[in-house]
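Lecture 7, part 2: worked example. A protein chain together with adenosine monophosphate.
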Amino acid sequence: MSTIGILGGGQLGLMMAQAAKKFGHRIVVIDPDDQCPCVSIADEFICAKYNDETAIKDMAALCDVMTYEFENADAQVVSMYLDIFPQGSEALTISSHRYKEKKFAKKLGLKTPNFFKIKSEADLFQIVSFPTLIKTCRFGYDGKGQWLIRDVEDLNEIKLEFPGEYIAEDFISYDREISVVVARFVDGIVTYPPFENVHEKGILRQTTYPSSISEGVARLAVDAAIAIVEQLNYIGVLAVEMFVSGNEVIFNEFAPRPHNSAHLTIECADFSQFDLHIAAITGQKKIEPQMLKSGVMFNILGQHVAEVFSKQAAKPDKHVFIHWYGKKETRFNRKMGHVTIAGDDKLNELVLRWRMSR
Ligand code: AMP
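Predicted complex, written out as structure tokens:
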């Protein structure tokens, strides 16, 4: 039994904590919001900013091991406690900067969209192929900090803030989006098979297992995820998001933490991504997860809350698992929970019934 410190008290922290409790661990959480999802489950809760060095020092003194649940954790703070942060700081430094991340993937030999850095207005005029996406290098998530540039007119209208760092990358007209969730233990690497994802306006709406990609494409995707985690000084779960175009796999980004697209492993696998993460960071022996059932996950965004309650009240079903994150404030596009439909029985019928209307 260990005491595990979690930097960040959001839904990923909550599901990490739920897994940790099954293994009998204690949980300490730090988050600036004293109403965050982890408040109700933490054995100790520290209300402070993630880069509050005194608070982190106090937390480190209480914990055998620490983890972070989001990629904008402060890499410098993490690097001060490397001996108790098995995820390390390297994966954070790279994944929290989109240009560094794409350069890292390219250097590894992975296919990426064409990209370059934008540091000034003048750099914008290097964009000659359309459509192009411009993204902030830092702090973009769920489609925030992204602009689609369809033509020169869009380019003339866009207002970026300088000094500031952006990346411009080719817009890929992909066939599918997939993710591979990989876990590195002290004694080896394991992965789940690829999951297939649907995003709308940059926000994940649906994940499906099994994916509809071929075995060859799945192999390429799994190999890419393994190559990434092998290159980093990293222990724990890590997710890689990719585009599939024909038989090609194109790297988009990675997240050094459990990922929204693998929430269905809670019901559809023998060991969930959160079980794997906790086992890996506490130094347990490698667990080879097996997918046991097909599944579909829908995110419950703020605008879906009433719809989910009425669907559940109208017809509860033993294959439908609803997770609420306990967030106090409901907002449009805010992730409030998720629904997993697990099992091969009636999957199509339930998916049609549960697909969110907006
Ligand atoms: P990101 O925050 O980079 O993961 O982007 C969020 C979503 O925007 C992705 O899951 C895609 O649906 C879309 N997207 C991001 N980059 C590209 C790209 N280069 N081409 C096409 N769609 C993209």
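The mean pLDDT is 95. Residues 113, 133, 140, 143, 169, 171-172, 177, 199, 202, 241, 252-253 surround adenosine monophosphate (CB under 6 Å). Keep this in mind for problem set question 3.
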